[in-house]
Amino acid sequence: MIRFDNVTKTYLRGQSPAVENLDIEFARGEFVFLVGASGSGKSTLMRMVLKEVAPTRGSVHVAGKDLARIPSWRVPALRRDIGMVFQDFRLLPSKTAYQNIEFALAVIGTPRKVVRRLVPEMLEMVGLEDKGRRLPHELSGGEQQRVAIARAYVNRPSILLADEPTGNLDPATAEGILDLLAEINERGTTVVMATHDRAAVNRMRRRVVEMVGGVVVRDEEGGGYESAVEDSVISGHAEDGESVTAAGTADPADPTRPSDPTPAPDGAESADRAGRDHVDEVRASEDVLEEDLIDEREAQHLDADDAAFAEDEEDHR
Predict the structure, then answer these.
(1) Pairing relation of β-strands 207-212 and 31-35?
(2) ABC transporter domain location, by residue (predicted)?
């Protein structure tokens, strides 16, 4: 389902690789936890599956396709078979729970009759059948994450990537989200979840892949969060690696942003916070604008892409 063949990813010349010599495969129907300290390469691995970034060396295969051979205009078709859930939910703030899920169907031109059937089914599956008309700010954090999962799963993707989906939730709510992901996995979807949630990993006892400095140091079936592996940072070993992360090194998924920046001096902190708030507001506005710009013509264009992709695949058989 997902295979990395000797993959190395370096973002900037002279910088240590975000992922190095990665040889690993995730089979169809697996539930895999990716664990490791911040900056260990988990997010880079996921971004390569989505073809957001390309490996510097090696090859990535998703659903039997070599991503290097997929041109940019076919990437939307690839991503329709990959659901993505984030720690911060990323719901459209001006749209209801129903409309947020509906949006994922609208962008691929799903007929209205199908939309009216699928969205209520998704709301019922995630336990929110009576809250479809609520806006995100009217929902709890756990409920918002359930909407985000429903949106990611509504197209029935074969792969679901979850990046810290329980990171902003209390333990009881996190258990419910984990149960929901397990249910999706039981329906046949491959789930790869990056997490720092010790309780979640220990409770599920699924395959655990631990990364340190872009390298896989543990691949264990039925594993727990911590391990006796000497190179494990999260288990209290390899303390030097832990201190490097804590010192504020560049985040490999965004080399321009420190993973744990040094606190700003008095007087600068409030200005910095205001700047971040402004950026967040702009991003939220851009999300709404992006939604408003998707119309029937875009849906037709995506359908045409699908038809061309299918013809090309048939020609290669």
Answers:
(1) parallel
(2) 2-238
